């Protein structure tokens, strides 16, 4: 079980995911678990739901479920922690526009 106080990071880019996990672990001194897809997130189940912060990449790859889908799964599963979206896309990208409409992230 990952547990309360830990950080969840969902990012499809392996190098970026590894870097952020290491930074959170070393700099913030908090355990961070990184997954590369919506499916991996769901596979964590209660472990993901026990984290206090979830950082979600908005675009998880072409023809893949998105960070918006990950957000919905977390909330629909009872996740009460803080959710932050992260992206390199322009503010006009459709997923970014959709993420801006979410009031609690």
Search tags:
single chain, 105 residues, alpha/beta, four-stranded parallel beta sheet, 5 helices
How would you portray this structure in words?
It is a single chain. The chain is α/β, with parallel strands linked by helices and 105 residues long. It has five helices and four strands, in the order E-H-E-H-H-E-H-E-H. The chain has helices spanning 14-27, 38-44, 46-49, 67-76, 94-100, and strands at 7-10, 32-35, 53-57, 82-86. A four-stranded parallel β-sheet has the order 2-1-3-4, with helices on both faces. The longest helix has 14 residues, at 14-27. The chain is globular and about 35 Å long. The mean pLDDT is 90.
Provide the gyration radius in Å: 13 Å
- The proportion of strand residues reads 15-25%
Percent of residues in helices: 40-55%
- Count of helical stretches: 5
Structural class, from helix and strand content? alpha/beta
Q: Low-confidence stretches at least 5 residues in length (pLDDT < 50)?
A: none
Structural shape: globular
Could you give the order of strands across the largest sheet?
A: 2-1-3-4
Task: Please describe the topology of this protein.
Layout: E1 7-10, H1 14-27, E2 32-35, H2 38-44, H3 46-49, E3 53-57, H4 67-76, E4 82-86, H5 94-100
Parallel strand pairs: 1-2, 1-3, 3-4
Write a brief structural summary.
With 105 residues, the protein is α/β, with parallel strands linked by helices. 40% of the residues lie in helices and 17% in strands.
């Amino acid at each position: 079980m990952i547990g309360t106080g830990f950080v969840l990071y969902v990012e499809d880019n392996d190098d970026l995911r590894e870097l952020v996990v290491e930074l959170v672990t070393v700099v913030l001194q908090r355990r961070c678990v990184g997954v590369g897809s919506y499916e991996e997130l769901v596979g964590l189940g209660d472990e993901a739901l026990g984290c206090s912060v979830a950082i979600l990449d908005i675009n998880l790859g072409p023809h893949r479920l998105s960070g918006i889908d990950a957000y919905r799964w977390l909330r629909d599963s009872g996740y009460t922690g803080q959710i932050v979206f992260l992206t390199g896309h322009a503010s006009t990208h459709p997923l970014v526009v959709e993420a801006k409409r979410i009031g609690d992230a």
